[in-house]
Structure formats: C-alpha cells, structure tokens
Design a protein that fits this description.
The protein has 88 residues and is α+β, with helices and mostly antiparallel strands. The protein has two helices and five strands.
C-alpha cells in the first residue's frame, strides 16, 4: 500500500538569490515551488511517500547554499489519517 505525505514549507533566502534557490528546489524530485515573493520567501510543497522522507528533504533544503531558513507550515500523512499544523 502506498502512503501519501504532503508537506508545505516557507523557505527564506536573500532576494538576490531567489531565482537560483527556486530553480534548485524545483529541480528536486518530489518538490515544487508554488509561489515566491520579492522579499525572498518561497512557498514549497513536498509530495513524498512518508514523513521520514519529507523530514530528510526539509533538512537537505535547509542545508543548501543561500537558504536562510526552511520552516514546516503544514503536513498531512495518510498513514495516520491526520494533519499536523505548526502553532501560530
């Protein structure tokens, strides 16, 4: 049985690095940049097979050059049939 794990992140970078960072994240399999702002924020969605893979991808994104932060905002994992949202 396949599992579905969807996570959304806000990734922060310097505005001057935005195009390069966006391209690098879009090049990752199972990752897609859904939006960007001129001040260096990206909305990224991960569509992975499990939450361990999502956690590893978030760590990999955080460790990329020019990434200031990558914050998990939302995660759904159908293995558990529930949602996890970061506190406001």
């Amino acid at each position: 049985m396949s599992n579905l794990c969807i996570s959304s992140l806000v990734v922060r970078t310097k505005p001057s690095s935005l195009p390069a960072v966006s391209d690098r994240i879009d090049a990752l399999q199972e990752a897609e940049v859904y939006g960007a702002s001129e001040d260096g924020r990206l909305v990224v969605v991960l569509d992975t097979s499990d939450n361990r893979k999502a956690a590893d991808m978030i760590t990999d994104i955080q460790n990329q050059p020019d990434i200031l932060s990558a914050t998990l905002i939302y995660q759904y994992d159908d293995q558990f049939g529930n949602q996890v949202e970061a506190p406001a």
